[in-house]
């Protein structure tokens, strides 16, 4: 391809170059011969007036030295008779083109024919006629074509040589990339980064491949971590349930103890929550999570969620500050409650040993702002940007506090779908999760809306 393109470009350049050169030569020849014919016409005014045939011959014979290209030259008088003429020794008969004007030129039969009128006192006495051979033009053409041919051969040879030298270098790098891809595909080992020092498209491809492999590796790590967490999180409540049911089963003819049934039920609920979260995530990812939008009182929702936790939490006291009636809102009530429950349960779960969780609500008529704050150990600053990622759990807590790393991801998705914002501020003294919801928005702008 490279060779072909270079040859094509060179051919075009040479053609343009040769055509302009030949045109230039022709134009120069025409101009100079027209000038010469005019000079001859001026010099022959008196020879015609005085019928000095000898002088006319003398003038014309000088053309032999002045313009060797001229084959024939003739002075024609007003009656059309040849008054004087000059014939170059090598010349054969003069063929006069039919359309030759009285004052001008014609290019025909590879010759240039020029005429110029001999005028005195506005009276035409005759004309000068010249026949010029263009043999020099042929020579120029030949030379140019020869030169173009030589340059073309040199160009083809050198581009072929360059292509031959570069080809193995390019193929080697491409083959290396292909083989690494094949290896990664068959072994599942994405940890081998490719090294390429070049600065061309192949090195860009290598860089893209490397960064893609980093992402694949990270998602593989997350998947493996998730499988580990999931099996542990599902196994623990199942073992507990089995233990209590075995216990109840062993109590022959006795009424099962209420507290054992209660414990088994608690663990069933835990399993139910985990499975529900997993289902929500899968719905979100396939775009099937629907919002059942309705108008409801946010104050009541907060009150109910907080009351639910106050009833079951024996460790923490939930204090609710701010505006207890932030107003009505159009949203999916169940999903907003899910966000609230998640934030409250995290606040309790991740501040063991503390006694207080703080809720604050406010609104400015445009936006509602809810905060859930705890006094736990907080989240390290470098982990804050990932906290809402799917399956993300902070390094410290994930060891001793159970969880899937899905709650905050689901909360963010729900709030995003309501065109709201969710964020966290955290120090060593505790974390505060905020979410805000617009109070006025077009119902139809909510994503995946299912009308109630
Ligand atoms: P889960 O609690 O099931 O692990 P989440 O998505 O709710 O999943 O939370 C993700 C991670 O964020 C948790 O594993 C925990 O490390 C951190 N986190 C969430 N809430 C808090 C909080 N209130 N205080 C400290 N860390 C928190």
Task: Describe the model.
By secondary structure, this protein is of the alpha+beta class. The chain has 3 domains: 2-157, 2-Layer Sandwich (Beta-Lactamase); 201-286, Helix Hairpins; 293-445, Heat Shock Protein 90 (2-Layer Sandwich), CATH 3.30.565.10. Helices cover 53% and strands 19% of the residues. It is built from 11 helices and 12 strands. The protein has helices spanning 2-43, 45-49, 53-61, 63-66, 135-187, 201-250, 258-285, 298-312, 333-349, 395-400, 407-417, and strands spanning 70-77, 82-87, 104-108, 111-120, 123-133, 293-297, 317-322, 328-332, 356-363, 367-374, 421-427, 430-438. The strands form 3 sheets. Strands 2-1-5-4-3 form a 5-stranded antiparallel beta sheet. Strands 7-9-10-12-11 form a 5-stranded mixed beta sheet. Strands 6-8 form a two-stranded antiparallel ribbon. α6 packs antiparallel against α7 (258-285) and α8 (298-312) runs parallel beside α9 (333-349). The radius of gyration is 50 Å and the shape is elongated. The model has no long low-confidence stretch (mean pLDDT 87). The structure holds adenosine-5'-diphosphate.
């Amino acid at each position: 391809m490279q060779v072909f393109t270079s040859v094509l470009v060179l051919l075009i350049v040479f053609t343009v170059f040769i055509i302009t050169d030949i045109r230039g030569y022709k134009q120069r020849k025409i101009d100079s011969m027209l000038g010469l014919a005019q000079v001859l016409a001026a010099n022959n005014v008196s020879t015609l007036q005085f019928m000095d045939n000898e002088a006319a011959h003398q003038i014309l014979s000088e053309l032999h030295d002045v313009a060797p290209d001229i084959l024939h030259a003739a002075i024609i008088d007003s009656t059309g008779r040849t008054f004087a003429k000059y014939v170059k020794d090598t010349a054969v008969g003069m063929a006069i083109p039919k359309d030759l004007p009285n004052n001008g030129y014609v290019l025909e039969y590879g010759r240039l024919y020029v005429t110029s009128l001999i005028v005195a006192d506005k009276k035409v006495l005759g004309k000068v006629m010249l026949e010029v051979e263009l043999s020099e033009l042929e020579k120029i053409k030949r030379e140019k074509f020869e030169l173009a041919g030589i340059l073309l051969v040199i160009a083809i040879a050198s581009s072929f040589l360059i292509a031959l030298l570069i080809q193995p270098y390019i193929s080697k790098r491409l083959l290396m990339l292909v083989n690494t891809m094949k290896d990664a595909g068959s072994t599942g080992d994405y940890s081998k980064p490719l090294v390429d020092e070049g600065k061309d498209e192949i090195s860009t491809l290598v860089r893209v491949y490397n960064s893609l492999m980093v992402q694949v590796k990270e998602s593989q790590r997350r998947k493996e971590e998730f499988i580990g967490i999931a099996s542990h999180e599902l196994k623990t409540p199942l073992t507990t349930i089995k233990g209590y049911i075995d216990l109840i089963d062993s109590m022959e003819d006795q009424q099962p103890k209420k507290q054992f049934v209660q414990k088994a039920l608690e663990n069933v609920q835990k399993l139910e929550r985990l499975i529900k979260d997993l289902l929500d995530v899968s719905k979100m990812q396939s775009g099937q999570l629907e919002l059942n939008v309705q108008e409801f009182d946010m104050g009541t929702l907060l009150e109910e969620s907080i009351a639910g936790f106050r009833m079951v939490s024996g460790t923490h006291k939930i204090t609710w500050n701010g505006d207890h009636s932030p107003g009505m809102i159009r949203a999916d009530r169940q999903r907003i409650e899910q966000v609230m429950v998640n934030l409250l349960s995290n606040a309790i779960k991740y501040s063991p040993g503390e006694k207080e969780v703080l809720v604050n609500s406010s609104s400015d008529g445009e936006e509602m702002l809810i905060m859930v704050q705890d006094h736990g150990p907080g989240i390290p600053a470098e982990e804050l940007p990932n906290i809402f990622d799917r399956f993300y759990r902070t390094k410290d807590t994930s060891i001793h506090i159970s969880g899937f790393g899905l709650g905050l991801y689901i909360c963010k998705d729900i709030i995003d779908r309501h065109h709201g914002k969710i964020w966290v501020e955290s120090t060593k003294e505790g974390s505060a999760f905020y979410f805000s919801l617009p109070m006025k928005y077009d119902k139809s702008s909510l994503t995946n809306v299912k009308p109630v």
